Amino acid sequence: MECRAGAPxxxxxxLRVEAVSNCLITGGAGLIGRxxxxxxxxxxxxxxxxxxxxxxxxxxxxxxxxxxVERDVRDVSAxxxxxxxxxxxxxxxxxxxxxxxxxxxxxxxxxxxSLAGVEACLSALEQACxxxxxxxxxxxxxxxxxxxxxxxxxxxxRTQCEGRWAYAAAKLEGERRVLQANPxxxxxxxxxxxxxxxxxxxxxxxxxxxxRARAGxxxxxxxxxxxxxxxxxxxxxxxxxxxxxxHPRWQEPVLNVGGKASASARALAQCVLRHSxxxxxxMPLDPERLLxxxxxxxxQRTPDLGCLQRMGIAxxxxxxxxxVLDMLAxxxxxxxxxxASPA
Length: 343
Ligand code: NAD
Description:
Distance between the termini: 26 Å
Helix content: 25-40%
CATH topology of the largest domain: Rossmann fold
Structural class: alpha/beta
Bound molecules: nicotinamide-adenine-dinucleotide
Largest sheet: 7 strands, parallel
Radius of gyration: 19 Å
Order of helices and strands: EHEEHEHHEHEEHEEHEEHEHHH
CATH architecture of the largest domain: 3-Layer(aba) Sandwich
């Protein structure tokens, strides 16, 4: 696998979005896709979602007027057929295998599958979409190299590709491919998007803490739990994406999208315990023992959201307490036996 950091970006161009437009969301049954489908549908978009339900996606939470297509995004002819029929003005490509645990099971497969999805979208964009369809590719804060301070879109990018980093490498390669292939294409780099209905199965931290706190089980932390992240509520992220979708002059090729709820894993766990009143305790675990030599800790990741703000997009405002309270109120209940561990 080859990592290419800092690939050149194409010239920018504007997109005119009409009052009612069609939109296709791949991975649209997942956490972000469901929220985005709801948000766009409420704003008058005609929304089609495509998902193979291989990951954490499920249909029931989607509004009735959202069209659902159960397909693998890598099935190029099926994707082209959907695009020919829907004629999307926007194609959000969110479908991906998500979660460190799932990536570690088959890093090379995840990398190849991710790039196959990108190529299928580019093929459909070229052959089956209107000439001015905008492709928006979901990338990740994982593409940034470990470094102190706020991460802006020009911060140094990761160069490792193996094991756990196969996901980041595939996102970087995907970014490069879509930006080189199409002048209207854009990349959004998400930072720790969380919300009710997020799957804990792949080790996602907040749903895991909430489910275990409700069951009175220990909240397990990697090491001393001091690694810090910045969380964003999925409904606020969906609102940001919907505003970007209708933005008349989205010129930035790459944008950070995240929130303001910065916390260590320990502080997040304590926040869940405080608001839930759970008797659970915090339990430090040795990540290397759980995930083997492939584990690599990223100490801190906080987005600089200046680009988004300069475009006139209102930034997410929910703090950690608000996000945790909403999770406790709306996250589905699971049986104690079904509560996920971090590995
Ligand atoms: P999710 O796992 O909830 O949703 C991903 C969806 O993609 C699932 O419904 C899954 O079934 C679907 N999918 C996977 N492979 C597919 C395929 N081959 N064909 C069709 N559908 C397929 O994840 P999410 O949190 O909603 O993430 C959405 C996107 O944002 C992903 O690309 C992810 O890499 C990216 N992202 C998310 C976060 C986050 O914090 N949630 C952070 C960085 C990047």
